[in-house]
Specification:
The chain is of the alpha/beta class and about 270 residues long. It has one domain. It is built from twelve helices and nine strands. A seven-stranded mixed beta sheet has the order 1-9-8-2-5-3-4, sandwiched between helices. The protein has a two-stranded antiparallel sheet with strand order 6-7. A hairpin with a 2-residue loop joins strand 6 and strand 7. The relative contact order is 0.18.
Length: about 270
Amino acid sequence: MKTLFRVLAVLPLSLLHAIGSVLGWLAFLASPTYRGRFLANARQAGYAFGQVRGAVAAAGRLIAEVPRLWFGAPAAVQWSGAHLIDDALARGRGIVFLTPHLGCFEATAQGYASRYGPITVLYRPARKAWLRPLVDSARSRRNLFTAPTTLAGVKQMLKALHAGQAVGLLPDQVPPDGLGVWAPFFGRPAYTMTLSARLARQTGAQVLLAWGERLAWGRGYRIHLRPWTDELPVQAEAAAAQVNAGMEALIRECPAQYLWGYARYKTPRGAA
């Protein structure tokens, strides 16, 4: 598998995205379950299919670009709002980046690590045992560290923030039972992680919203940064609702690059 990924990694990003577009449509047309979830999630957010049809191909591009991001030469990255990072780093309290499943979220962490320095990102280990060594080795790059969704991972992220470094999370990722609360997401209850708010409150870190726009014709990515101006509530449900509202605002900036097929409203095993 690693050999195949290394071969694909040398292909131009434009070609990988073209292949991904085809794969995205094939998956959409071949899987009634995936297609139904995609359409239902988009409707829940108030979008007709014509408004988000670009997200079908975008989902395929997300998969096809992985070999390049993990094993290839760094893609071109543009920045929008980089002064927010400069200001946050000057405070020396660390940064909590909140990024939804929008655009290329791998590129946001890689772009930060390349330009600014150490960042630790939360990830869920691969369920297939044979995939774990590949994923773990591929995602570990210079200044880019990964933390699993375990107590050890949480401690790792707290340590990074106390050292004035950055951490990154996907707060619209469904957490395991016991690590989240129910909060509205586009008007429907969704099991939402509480970790992002806890990290910010416990360390005094600066919260920033970020997402990586996938540019046309394989020209790379543009990382968009947005300020977080509200104080996070202490109450877990209220804080989760506030974080979800922030994710909704980012998604509405570019709904054609959101992963609408993600099972955002699933109930984790064991959760009420």
